[in-house]
Amino acid sequence: MGTGSDRKQEYEQAYQAWQQQLASLHRVLLKGESLEPPRMKGLLNREARAKERYDTAREALLGLDTAHGDDPFSL
Hints:
Blueprint: H1 4-29, H2 37-62
Helix pairs in contact: 1-2
């Protein structure tokens, strides 16, 4: 990935992006905001991609880079 400061910056950016998507999703699921089905699908996809980016950045920050098959529990 990069240096420690790069990893921290990527983590912070990924976290903020995920939180923004999660807040949008919560407005729909918890606060009753209405969305057309195609827009809801898009919102769910954006939140999922943001969460994946966050998880990857978190693993890199923690030194758990599982993207290269280092995960002993992967099949």
